[in-house]
Amino acid sequence: MKRPPIKVVFRTYEDGETIALLFEYKDEEGQTKGFSHNSRWFFAEYQRIMRMTRPAVRKEYLTLFNELKDEGYKRIQIYQRARIKTSYIVQP
Asked: Would you state the pLDDT for residue 4?
């Protein structure tokens, strides 16, 4: 039986760093799992990152996409944005 694809949003910061948000994966505090060249794996508040970044274009996320595949995520479905329901309040 095939596993369902991993849903990923690729975003780019103003300084050019591109990250991948695996928005279906959360920690116990509701933070979204992310991946980047610099930090490797991290957890962050999804809505805050969406405000601080812009959608990544293909040439910006292609190497990160391939790194995720090397990490074992073979089936990746790319999204521009995801609706995340949170059950906690995030302070600025």
From this structure: 87
